[in-house]
Amino acid sequence: MSASNDVPTLKILLIGASSVGKSSLLLRFTDDEFLASEETTATIGVDYRIKGIEVGRKRFKLSIWDTAGQERFRTLTSSYYRGAQGVIIAYDVTQRDTFDALPTWFNELETFTTSDDVVKVVVGNKVDKELSRVVTTKEGEEFAEKMGCLFVECSAKKGVGVNGAFDELVNRIVSTPSLWQKTAPGERRPGDRMPGGVPAAHAADSSRGNISLTDREGVVGYGLGVARDNCNC
Ligand SMILES: Nc1nc2c(ncn2[C@@H]2O[C@H](COP(=O)(O)OP(=O)(O)OP(=O)(O)O)[C@@H](O)[C@H]2O)c(=O)[nH]1
Question: If you measure from the C-alpha of residue 18 to the centroid of ligand 1, how many angstroms do you get, rounded to a whole number?
Fold first, then answer.
């Protein structure tokens, strides 16, 4: 067994309406990049990336699942949720309907998550478009509070708040032992307990010189397809 297999894996899911910027949040977090509108495509099924992260001198592997917002591209939905320890529920602060749809996403989450302790972060994205904003910070905060969740506003475009959203999520997972001591199906159980609330640091993979890699085979292993579509409809 390779040393990397000793690093506990935390499974995180990105959900929310189409075009709120889930794929962009993931790309910003894993590669610190942002694609212009004409370069982005709707997610079909699920995309999947892994990133190393360090919390209180302990390394974790985040397997982050980026799901399709468009109903017609959502297949095997329950499989995405299986074993997830953290969920980011995203909306677009410039599109009221994506905020109004949040209760529907929470219903799906309640239906399919396999742990009552799953950590949730409500993320309002695209705060760089301040002039087009229609959902206030207060509305976002109040909704998250009502749902008992963390709340962060972000801009995947400008790189604002994105690392903070993932850090908050990971910190909360690490401080909830019932979650991370039972890893996702097929993954190793970590050997020791972490203190909660410690700052997360993004760990560079010294052998690769960067911090992320795409593991599409991992998705195939779960029986899920990965594809990108050029349709912006
Ligand atoms: N201005 C601005 N645009 C953004 C931001 N994040 C994403 N976008 C744009 O919003 C559009 C949709 O982004 P995606 O990341 O593909 O959205 P998605 O939620 O993954 O969409 P689906 O795959 O359909 O579920 C693209 O044109 C992005 O360039 C942001 O923070 N600010």
Answer: 8
Distance from residue 41's CA to the centre of ligand 1 (Å):
9
* Mutation to probe ligand 1, out of 20, 22, 24 (largest number of atoms < 8 A from CB): 24
Measured from CB, residues less than 6 Å from any atom of ligand 1 are: 18-24, 35, 37, 40, 42-43, 68-70, 125-126, 128-129, 155-157
Distance CA(190)–CA(194), nearest Å, equals 10
For the chain, where are the E strands, in sequence order? 9-16, 42-55, 58-67, 86-92, 119-125, 150-153, 200-201, 212-214, 226-229
Q: Which two tokens stand for residue 210?
A: 């960067």
Complex-level ipTM beyond the 0.90 threshold: yes
For the chain (233 residues), the mean pLDDT of every run of 10, in chain order, is: 67 95 95 86 85 86 90 76 94 98 95 90 97 98 96 97 93 83 49 35 33 30 30 31
Question: Top-level CATH class of 9-179?
Answer: alpha beta
